Amino acid sequence: MDNLSILIAGRAGDGIDKSSLIIGRILGQLGYNIYIYRDYPSIIRGGHTFSIIRCSVDKIAAHSDKVDVLIALNQDSIDFHKSRLTGGKSLIIYDSTSVKSDTGMAIPAGGIIKEAKALDLMRNSCMIGAMCRAIGIEKDILENVFRKDVPKETELNLKVAFRGFEEAKEFIKIEKSKQKSLPIITGSEAIGMGLIKGGLSAYISYPMTPSSGILHFLAGLQEEYALKVIHPENEIAVMLMALGFSYAGKKAAVGTSGGGFCLMTEGLSFSGMAELPIVVLLGQRPGPSTGLPTYTGQTELNFALSAGHGDFIRFVAAPGDTEEAYYWSAVSMNLAWKYQLPAIILCDKTLNEGACSFDVDSAGEIKVEAPLLWDKKGEYKRYQDTKTGISPLAFPSDENAIVKVNSYEHDESGITTEDTDLTVKMQDKRCRKAEYLLEELEQYETVKVYGDKNSSTALLFWGSNKGVCVEVGARLGLKVIQPIVFSPFPLKQFKEAFKGVKKIICVENNTFGQLADFLKRYGINVDHRILKYDGRPFSLDELEQKLKKIIT
Questions:
Q1: What pLDDT digit, counting tens, does each position of 26-35 carry?
Q2: Hey, which CATH number is domain 447-551, 3.30.200.20, 3.40.50.720, 3.40.50.920, 3.40.50.2020?
Q3: What is the pLDDT of residue 1?
Q4: What is the pLDDT of residues 285-325, one digit of tens each?
Q5: What pLDDT, in 10s, does the model give residues 359-378?
Q6: Across residues 165-191, what is the average pLDDT?
């Protein structure tokens, strides 16, 4: 079996998310690549929630509408999802104490819980045990994963899981793959690891879905990596505190979403004028306003490119999977400090909260450089005019250095000025950095090409649509193109990727097609736009159907 999809569903509060990770790690122990899609409402308890766990011998980062196994913890789970079953070798595993079904494998999870004097939440452990038996996974693999991933009430959870195992019967047999087992991590965890790789000292954030996971992950690593992880009272404080760390010579990053980023824009402009490096993790979600706070979207490309007042240089990137999230988080930190500018990483729920197999060796070599530091000779000028526009850095603790940062226009020493010649000189100095940054970006793979590289039809995407576009594009024989960096835009690499292309189809999760509109300024016109803005990502089946209507 090369592919298997399992859907587990229940009420919000039933532990569906944790269960999906455990299922993914059980399947991962067999050597399969894993992708997990999570769907949940913004209410904490009571609403319907589900996860789809897909395993494959191939690298994957997308889900299918069709599933092979449905694990139902309540009646809604069957009513909402039974149409997804593939038929033939498909199976429903349900809790017979709370679900009625004419077909499937009945597991008296509620009764088992009562018998074991366990919490109702542990029904999911019981159903996972039943699933293992049903698809031919040995008990020892189940136990190994539980002992590693269920730190609380481990023995009781195992007891319940084994009872579920005993109640079930083998339905299909999933064989072990010959591939090595890889860790399964979320995009948020990959981003956090990348920031640490880039030298992170402080992470400051006000929790907002879908970026909250980064905060929680890094908070758990404070002692191990000597991090400062801080949750201030609002997003304005978040940005200003992070810039304070930067001023003191400490690499800082912030995490937020649309409404929070809006509050940060004055601080972002301050970063541009004062040349204080900062990394911003911008978790996009459908809008406008609060929109769908627990769902996904690609709604803020325009915002990231233009946020703030006045003209200033920024770095903007949109990774598409966990390896890229890890890699570009580290690179963004490095570039922010090398060029002394704000760096924005665009992400979303699909990337941040989706979990998949992670291969650090395929992420690429990460180069972390020390920033340009003051040589401690002569008078220190914070904004010294240089050929590259990059001024040597000094920090308040440095002897004989007066480090003056200024949100006003200023001279090389940081003294406020309104002189016309100085104004032009200092703005030109700041903007000069873009030329050298763009030149350096030629060393990076800022635009990637997949699929049939000789095809005259290009499937263009950005961000978290990578998994679905790469897989479907390969099936349909299309050239698949992924721009990762948007500011400064690597036009040379982009045009190289489009050589031989006669038709461009652009896939985005927003209403108007922000990438397609962005490309118009460079004289690149998209022929077809496939847009989805209901808060859910494209499934493989959905995108394939839409593409077939265009290319046939």
A1: 999 999 999 9
A2: 3.40.50.920
A3: 65
A4: 998 999 999 999 999 999 999 999 999 999 999 999 999 99
A5: 999 999 999 999 999 999 99
A6: 95
Burial class for 11, CB neighbours closer than 10 Å (0-12, 13-18, 19+):
middle
Q: Please report, to the nearest 10 degrees, the dihedral formed by the alpha carbons of residues 536, 540, 542, 545 taken in order.
A: 160
Nearest to 125 by CA among 22, 262, 35: 22
Sheet holding 202-205, edge to edge: 228-230, 202-205, 252-257, 278-284, 342-348, 315-317, 485-487
How far is residue 295's CA from residue 300's CA, in Å, rounded to a whole number?
A: 14
pLDDT at 76: 95
Specify the 3-state DSSP secondary structure of 508: strand
Q: Which residues make beta-bridge pairs with 36?
A: 53, 355
**pLDDT averaged over every residue in the chain:** 96
Domain 184-362 has CATH 2.60.40.10: no
What is the dihedral angle through the alpha carbons of 229, 233, 234, 236, rounded to the nearest 10 degrees?
A: -80
The CATH number of 3-167 is 3.40.920.10
Per the confidence metrics, is the pTM higher than 0.90?
Answer: yes
pLDDT at residue 43 is higher than 80: no
The residue assigned the tokens 């031919």 is: 136
Tokens at 46, concatenated: 């009571």
* Closest of 356, 269, 294, 274 to residue 320, by C-alpha: 356
Neighbours of 389 (CB within 10 A): 23
Cα 293 to Cα 50: distance, rounded to the nearest angstrom? 17
pLDDT of amino acid 42: 84
> What 8-state DSSP symbol labels residue 410?
B
β-bridge pairing 252-257 and 202-205: parallel
